[in-house]
């Protein structure tokens, strides 16, 4: 002890330096140790204030109303929110990004309804008031932003038409929001576009054209009474998780049977349509065959009639040719007879003319003698 006091009195500066370093280390350690609990408390208050889900249920087959009612039947459930969500391509100012569109129950917004889970915080603008209006993520400096007034055009990124999923293809941003659903800058991955979700948007649930819900969000009774990061929180949720798994297995079987029944019904309907179509086709084919047979018979009858007429025609032609030939021969004979008679006529005519000229000469001589005798 004396040696220690002697060292301190000989070099007080060194002692004070060591003392300050130790005090600084202790203070830093105490601050670090206190920071984590404070951050957890702050996060827990934030989660409770915005009713962050205790469970998010998803299903490849979706959730129908019966599924929701089965989940709601658990006595431990405090709030239940069935929801829609889609990963789509958003086109804005020539750029195309993948965004997640989630639904919001507008009738529960700005209320303290226990079923209003994952409550949004409106940072700018207003909530949608009519169809064609949408909420966009408030900018965080990293993910793409969509200012108020922006018109965003959506597509599925697949062969499916967006009209099969949403009421409209284009929406106008009317408000910017924050949500406890995303606690980091990451927005998840997807199987369209670049494969990375860059932002989120929120639509009234009435704007979706889906037959089943894609998500179910739950809050559990007494869960808000404990710290989210405490072991007690897990002790409250674990029994509920087991019950949800059991319900999931039961509902999955029933849902599968329902889907199979629907598929079989559609299959039977298609089979009936196919049978009716085949029957109708068979009747049409039979009718067509009968018509074809009738046409064939008429064609054969027509061909026989044509052959008959053709034979008659050729027979008449042959007869006409024979008559024509005979007439030609008669004409030729007549022409020869005519020429022969004409020649004889011309000869006789020449003789007659000669006799006629002789007679004229004789007459002239007789008249001349008579005239001479009369002058005597």
End-to-end Cα distance: 230 Å
Strand content: 15-25%
In sequence order, what are the helices and strands, one letter per element? HHEHEEEEEEEEEH
Mean pLDDT: 86
Q: Numbering strands along the chain, what is their spatial order in the largest sheet?
A: 3-4-9-6-8-7
**How many DSSP E strands?**
10
What is the 3D form? rod-shaped
Unreliable residue runs:
none
Helix and strand content put the structural class at alpha+beta
> Compute the gyration radius: what is it?
58 Å
Number of helices: 4
Largest sheet: 6 strands, mixed, barrel
**Relative helix content:** 40-55%
What does this structure look like?
The chain is an alpha+beta fold and 376 residues long. Among the domains are: 2-46; 52-225, no CATH class. Helices cover 53% and strands 19% of the residues. The strands form two sheets. The chain has a six-stranded mixed beta barrel. Strands 1-10-2 form a three-stranded antiparallel sheet, covered by helices on one side. Helix 1 (2-10) crosses helix 2 (12-49). The longest helix is centred in the C-terminal third of the chain and has 145 residues, at 231-375. The chain is rod-shaped, with a radius of gyration of 58 Å.
Index terms:
rod-shaped; six-stranded mixed beta barrel; alpha+beta; three-stranded antiparallel β-sheet; 4 helices
């Amino acid at each position: 002890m004396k040696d220690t006091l002697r060292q301190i009195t000989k070099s007080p500066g060194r002692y004070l330096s060591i003392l300050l370093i130790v005090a600084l280390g202790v203070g830093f350690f105490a601050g670090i140790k206190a920071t984590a609990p404070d951050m957890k408390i702050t996060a827990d208050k934030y989660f409770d204030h915005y009713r962050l889900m205790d469970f998010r249920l998803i299903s490849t087959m979706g959730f129908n109303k019966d599924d929701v009612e089965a989940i709601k039947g658990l006595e431990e459930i405090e709030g239940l929110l069935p929801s829609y969500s889609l990963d789509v391509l958003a086109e804005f100012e020539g750029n195309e990004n993948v965004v997640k569109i989630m639904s919001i129950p507008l009738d529960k917004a700005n209320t303290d309804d226990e079923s209003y889970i994952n409550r949004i915080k409106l940072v700018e603008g207003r909530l949608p008031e009519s169809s064609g209006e949408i909420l966009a993520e408030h900018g965080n400096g990293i993910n793409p932003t969509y200012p108020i007034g922006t018109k965003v055009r959506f597509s599925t990124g697949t062969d499916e038409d967006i009209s099969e999923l949403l009421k409209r293809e284009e929406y106008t941003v009317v408000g910017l929001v924050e949500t406890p659903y995303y606690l980091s800058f990451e927005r998840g991955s997807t199987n369209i576009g670049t494969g990375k979700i860059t932002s989120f948007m929120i639509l009234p649930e009435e704007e979706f054209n889906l037959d089943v819900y894609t998500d179910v969000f739950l809050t559990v009774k007494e869960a808000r009474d404990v710290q989210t990061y405490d072991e007690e929180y897990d002790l409250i949720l674990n029994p509920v998780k087991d019950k949800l798994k059991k319900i999931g297995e039961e509902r999955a079987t029933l849902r599968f049977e329902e889907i199979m029944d629907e598929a079989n019904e559609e299959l039977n309907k298609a089979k009936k349509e196919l049978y009716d179509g085949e029957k109708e086709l068979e009747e049409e084919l039979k009718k067509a065959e009968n018509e074809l047979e009738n046409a064939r018979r008429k064609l054969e009858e027509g061909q026989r009639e044509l052959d008959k007429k053709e034979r008659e025609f050729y027979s008449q032609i042959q007869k006409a040719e024979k008559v024509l030939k005979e007439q030609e021969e008669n004409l030729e004979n007549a022409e020869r007879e005519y020429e022969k008679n004409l020649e004889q006529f011309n000869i006789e005519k020449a003789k007659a003319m000669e006799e006629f000229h002789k007679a004229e000469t004789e007459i002239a001589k007789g008249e001349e003698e008579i005239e001479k005798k009369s002058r005597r």
